[in-house]
């Protein structure tokens, strides 16, 4: 069983920044793809950003230019740097790991952006 632990969430004013971390219990070098998703109350969970084992990244339109996903294989950790935060970014953010044989989710970390 692979465990993913998110951290770095919190309360921030609009325009502020946060950096989320996702620490995996095993090596992530063999993970096909890791990503960040978010879910606001009453809404569907949605993709935020992805990063492949080769370091290729992809972002949804509503975070492009503001968020940056990165990975540190030596630390088995994936990061999400969030800048210029908006109240619309308020949600629980989840880490996802797509291994060759299974996918895993973290427990989530709350991000709240006040206006």
* CA gyration radius, whole angstroms: 13 Å
Shape: globular
Instruction: Find the structural class using helix and strand composition.
Output: mainly beta
Which percent range describes the beta-strand content?
A: over 45%
Q: Main β-sheet: number of strands, strand sense, barrel status?
A: 7 strands, mixed
Indicate the mean pLDDT. Answer: 95
Cα-to-Cα separation, first versus last residue: 40 Å
What does this structure look like?
This protein is mostly beta strands and 115 residues long. 0% of the residues lie in helices and 53% in strands. The protein has no helices and eleven strands. The protein has strands at 4-7, 10-13, 18-24, 33-39, 46-52, 57-59, 67-72, 77-82, 91-98, 103-105, 109-114. Strands 2, 4, 5, 6, 9, 10 and 11 form a seven-stranded mixed β-sheet that branches. A hairpin with a 4-residue loop joins β7 (67-72) and β8. The relative contact order is 0.33.
Describe how the helices and strands are arranged:
Layout: E1 4-7, E2 10-13, E3 18-24, E4 33-39, E5 46-52, E6 57-59, E7 67-72, E8 77-82, E9 91-98, E10 103-105, E11 109-114
Parallel strand pairs: 2-11
Antiparallel strand pairs: 1-3, 3-8, 4-5, 4-9, 5-6, 7-8, 9-10, 9-11
Structure summary:
By secondary structure, the chain is mostly beta strands. The protein contains no helices and eleven strands.
């Amino acid at each position: 069983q692979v465990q993913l632990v998110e951290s770095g969430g919190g309360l921030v004013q609009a325009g502020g920044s946060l950096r989320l971390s996702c620490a995996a219990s095993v090596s992530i070098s063999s993970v096909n793809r890791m990503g960040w998703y978010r879910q606001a109350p009453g809404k569907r969970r949605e993709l935020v950003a992805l990063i492949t084992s080769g370091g290729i990244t992809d972002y949804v339109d509503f975070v492009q230019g503001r968020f940056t996903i990165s990975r540190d294989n030596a630390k088995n950790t994936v990061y999400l740097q969030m800048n210029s935060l908006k109240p619309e970014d308020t949600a629980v953010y989840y880490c996802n790991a797509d291994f060759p044989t299974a996918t895993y989710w973290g427990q989530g970390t709350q991000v709240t952006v006040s206006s």
